Amino acid sequence: METELSRQLGIEHAIFGFTPFPEVAAAITRAGGFGVLGAVRYTDPDDLERDLDLLHRHADGKPYGLDVVMPAKKVEGVTEADVEAMIPEGHRGFVRDLLARHGVPELAEGETSGWRITGWMEEVARGQLDVAFDYPVKLLANALGSPPADVIARAHDHGVLVAALAGSARHARHHAEAGIDVVVAQGYEAGGHTGEIGTMVLVPEVVEAVAPLPVLAAGGIGSGEQAAAGLALGAQGVWLGSLWLTTEEADLHSEALTAKLLAAGSGDTVRSRALTGKPARQLRTEWTDAWDDPAGPGALPMPLQGLLVAEAVSRIQTYEVGALLGTPVGQIVGRMTGRRSVRAVVDDLTRGFERAVTRMNRIAGRSDT
Ligand SMILES: Cc1cc2nc3c(=O)[nH]c(=O)nc-3n(C[C@H](O)[C@H](O)[C@H](O)COP(=O)(O)O)c2cc1C
């Protein structure tokens, strides 16, 4: 699976893997793909440095990237405490009642919520970049919009390509105008924050909108045949997030959650604002049902919802409360039926890609096999 972009980055397969786990990112890179470490959960730059160090040491000298969540517009002088103060008491009560109904214990003394998504705050994301530029990161991706102009310029000064996720051709055009190098066209099926347009419709629209910029197809890709479809639609590679969650190298810190993912079908996810306040695809649980229930108070806008639920999510995960236990994941969860190594996943993707190419060649009457 070679394309102009994969050759430019010096990778064997045009398979890009987003993951919050440095071990998984390193394994994707070692297997010939391009591992991208998600930085949003690192509030302390020292933790990011430790994990980038691990990724770097285990990447066998091959290229890898970093994904940050940096808003394009700067919100001046707003602290986490200011945002906390904006959360209505009624919503706090709703969380308390929901947890009490399910008998979710308090965290132990001294145990803090490990799930604070504050990487969206510009000062946190900038701290992450200060660390990242000390490493030979080859691609910097941004989740929510185009990164600020000075960040794009700084990346380019370091010879780092800048990518941004887009859920519509309009977003993609905006990224192109901002001067980014690669657009990740991420469809409705995808895990995490996602738009309303399916991958099959989105990818060719984005390819056309930003040509000649390279586009990666994302959302609902879990086989080599699906990867081939993405490339057939004009993408220069595929970008996968969900499929790695059940690999042997991924540590979700919960056997119960892994078991839930392995058992889930493609219809068991929902696009809900329950986790962050923006629509994000995740496992459907009694937690998402409660937030999506029109009789309830409904989710708060980002970033309030993320701060409101951070401790609750930690408690649910720590005590593995089955009915509420979830994670962002895409519809491809239906194909994630067994634990495999990252290498086995990449090998399966490349074999499936070859099968698809052979089949298409046969259909086109070009095969002599
Ligand atoms: C658990 C999880 C967390 C994610 N977090 C982020 C994130 O922090 N930043 C980002 O750019 N994309 C994030 N995504 C989206 C992925 O980058 C990717 O676009 C998506 O997973 C592709 O679709 P797929 O889930 O069908 O493979 C996340 C996806 C998952 C499954």
From TrEMBL:
<keyword id="KW-0560">Oxidoreductase</keyword>
<dbReference type="InterPro" id="IPR004136">
    <property type="entry name" value="NMO"/>
</dbReference>
<dbReference type="GO" id="GO:0004497">
    <property type="term" value="F:monooxygenase activity"/>
</dbReference>
<dbReference type="InterPro" id="IPR013785">
    <property type="entry name" value="Aldolase_TIM"/>
</dbReference>
<dbReference type="Pfam" id="PF03060">
    <property type="entry name" value="NMO"/>
</dbReference>
<protein>
    <submittedName>
        <fullName>Nitronate monooxygenase</fullName>
    </submittedName>
</protein>
<keyword id="KW-0503">Monooxygenase</keyword>
<keyword id="KW-0285">Flavoprotein</keyword>
<keyword id="KW-0288">FMN</keyword>
